[in-house]
């Protein structure tokens, strides 16, 4: 659970993360007998749950007592709920304890599907109720009446699988959401993983956008970003088929690590694919600039046409200092991607700026200003990628929208010829990839501390293997001799296998000899059963330091730990 909490903090999610305490079946009855045997036992176990939540860093509990209880156990159940709620609040301000609509005040396991006199006593001593899914159309309004000024603490359940749920769930989940919103209570969506688990066509990314589009259509968007700088997204979802750093692929196998997620774009689902000539998806197969994801734009586009796609909806207040917008693009032919930025001001109104090359012509009239970005060069950057940067000062404005603009770059001497062509010219194939987007207050690269500024150690070294093979397990740890470690939220780990020959002629070392083996978000990394090729005399573990804006230290300057293998 700590990993999920960490990921939420990375992408600015303010939601509460709750643990679930559930009792069901015969085993659940036995647990309840012990838990509810006395008032003191109820308090004791409530305190243990509160301690567990605080220790693991989550924000409270969902209580689901799905068992029949003796009516004599109910007073101690109420004590358990009340004491847990109070203890959580005192231990962790802002925490929540939510009661699930299951056992009633009479001890019956009878789902009420609304807030009423049968479950309200538990609602009164907790922070809210998760109402079972089988409610009817007027139940949200009835529940709001019972809740009074706590109506938003009533969470009407929706089972996305559609098992007895109002509206049928699945692709009609919005039917229930519309009723809940109209009656001014809250919603509890259960199992949105239905999209993935049932393999909805045509593929997960498209189906996922379509389903969440139903939620947006009903309730709108409540989580806007960017709100602060630096802001960085490489569109990574924490899994993929490769990993790249500065456009160079360092891993070519499937992987899963949700701690590598970054901010995701607000892609809009288009009901009629034929209405949009460019299809936009978060992609894991095409080349990535950073991590394992990207935004891929594929389709057809006429010479003088452009297509705009929403990426982010922000609330970023600009001040006197300019902001630097940096993004990477890889494209085929004359396919190009620019950025459309919309700013609003109560005094000055709206302004739309376009960041695009000089080949953008007809559509530029839609914008207040067209800015031609500078092309940046980065050492060791893979061929094909273009990194562009623009500096923008909009003091007093708020950045509210960021769109990608697909267009075709035209050479200057072809403008007159293209204007003379017929407007019904057949569209040509379009393909481009957006690798990352960074918004920062500085155009200066981070000055990473040199390797001599770090203390790197190898601990708990264990050698293994048999019949001529050799393996290694160890813990790598590192720390700055002095300075602020919080500047560096991520470290890529490589290993270099050195032979006697390579030790004599390091200048001839091939870059491919450095093998990417993982990532760390703390100053430690565990290597387990690493296979060592024969002829290896030493192993050099390299820690590539990364900053909050997605930049990384050059490997030649990175801290490292070298371990002799030959004598083992």
Structure description:
There is one protein chain. By secondary structure, this protein is α+β, with helices and mostly antiparallel strands. Helix content is 20%, strand content 35%. Strands 7, 12, 13, 15, 19, 20 and 22 form a seven-stranded antiparallel β-sheet that branches. A six-stranded parallel β-sheet has the order 1-2-3-4-5-6. The protein has a five-stranded mixed β-sheet with strand order 14-21-16-17-18, with no helix packed on it. A hairpin with a 3-residue loop joins strand 16 (335-345) and strand 17. Helix 3 (39-56) runs parallel beside helix 4 and helix 7 packs parallel to helix 9 (204-219). The longest helix has 18 residues, at 39-56. The chain is globular. The two termini are 39 Å apart.
Query: β content, as a range?
Result: 25-35%
Mean of the pLDDT scores?
91
Distance, first to last CA:
39 Å
Q: Sheet bearing the most strands, described?
A: 7 strands, antiparallel
Low-confidence stretches: 415-424, 507-512
Number of strands: 29
- Structural class call reads alpha+beta
- Report the C-alpha radius of gyration, rounded: 28 Å
Helix content: 10-25%
């Amino acid at each position: 659970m700590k990993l999920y909490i960490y990921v939420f903090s990375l992408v600015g999610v303010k939601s509460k993360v709750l643990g679930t305490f559930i009792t069901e079946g015969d085993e659940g009855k036995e647990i309840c007998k012990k838990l509810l045997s006395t008032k003191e036992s109820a308090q004791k176990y409530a305190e243990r749950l509160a301690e567990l939540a605080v220790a693991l860093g989550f924000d409270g509990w969902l209580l689901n007592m799905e068992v029949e209880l003796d009516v004599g156990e109910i007073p101690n159940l109420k004590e358990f709920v009340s004491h847990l709620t109070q203890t959580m609040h005192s231990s962790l301000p802002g925490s929540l304890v939510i009661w699930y609509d299951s056992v009633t005040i009479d001890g019956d396991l009878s789902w009420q599907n609304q807030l009423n006199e049968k479950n309200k006593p538990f609602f009164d001593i907790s922070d809210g109720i998760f109402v079972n899914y089988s409610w009817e159309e007027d139940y949200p309004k009835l529940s709001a009446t019972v809740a009074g000024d706590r109506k938003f603490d009533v969470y009407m359940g929706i089972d996305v699988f559609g098992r007895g749920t109002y509206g049928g769930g699945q692709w009609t989940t919005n039917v229930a959401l519309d009723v809940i919103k109209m009656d001014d209570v809250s919603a509890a969506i259960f199992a949105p993983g239905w999209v993935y688990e049932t393999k909805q066509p045509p593929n997960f990314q498209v189906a996922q956008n379509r389903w969440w589009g139903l939620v947006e259509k009903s309730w709108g968007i409540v989580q806007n970003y960017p709100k602060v700088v630096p802001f960085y997204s490489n569109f990574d979802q924490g899994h993929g088929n490769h990993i790249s750093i500065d456009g160079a692929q360092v891993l070519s196998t499937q992987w899963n690590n949700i701690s590598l997620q970054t901010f995701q774009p607000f892609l809009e689902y288009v009901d009629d694919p034929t209405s949009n000539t460019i299809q936009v998806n978060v992609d894991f197969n095409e080349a990535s600039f950073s991590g394992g994801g990207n935004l891929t734009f594929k389709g057809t586009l006429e010479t003088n046409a452009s297509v705009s796609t929403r990426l982010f909806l922000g609330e970023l207040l600009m001040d006197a200092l300019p902001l630097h917008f940096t993004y990477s693009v890889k494209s085929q032919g004359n396919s190009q991607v620019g950025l459309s930025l919309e700013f609003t001001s109560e005094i000055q109104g709206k302004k739309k700026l376009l960041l695009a090359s000089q080949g953008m012509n007809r559509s530029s009239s839609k914008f207040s200003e067209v800015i031609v970005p500078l092309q940046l060069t980065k050492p060791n950057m893979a061929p094909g990628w273009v990194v562009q940067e623009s500096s923008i000062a909009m003091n007093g404005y708020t950045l509210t929208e960021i769109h990608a603009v697909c267009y075709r770059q035209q050479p200057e001497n072809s403008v007159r010829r293209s204007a003379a062509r017929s407007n019904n010219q057949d569209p040509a194939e379009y393909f481009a990839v957006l690798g990352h987007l960074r918004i920062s207050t500085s155009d200066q690269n981070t000055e990473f501390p040199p390797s001599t500024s770090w203390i790197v150690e190898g601990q708990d070294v264990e050698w293994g293997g048999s019949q001529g093979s050799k393996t290694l397990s160890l813990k790598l740890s590192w720390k700055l001799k002095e300075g602020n470690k919080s500047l560096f939220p991520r470290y890529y780990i490589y290993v270099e296998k050195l032979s006697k020959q390579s030790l004599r002629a390091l200048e001839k070392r091939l870059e491919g000899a450095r093998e990417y083996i993982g990532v760390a978000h703390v100053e430690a990394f565990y290597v387990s059963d690493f296979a060592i090729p024969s002829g290896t005399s030493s192993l050099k573990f390299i820690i590539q330091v990364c900053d909050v804006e997605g930049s990384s230290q050059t490997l030649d300057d990175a801290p490292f730990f070298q371990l002799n293998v030959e004598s083992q």
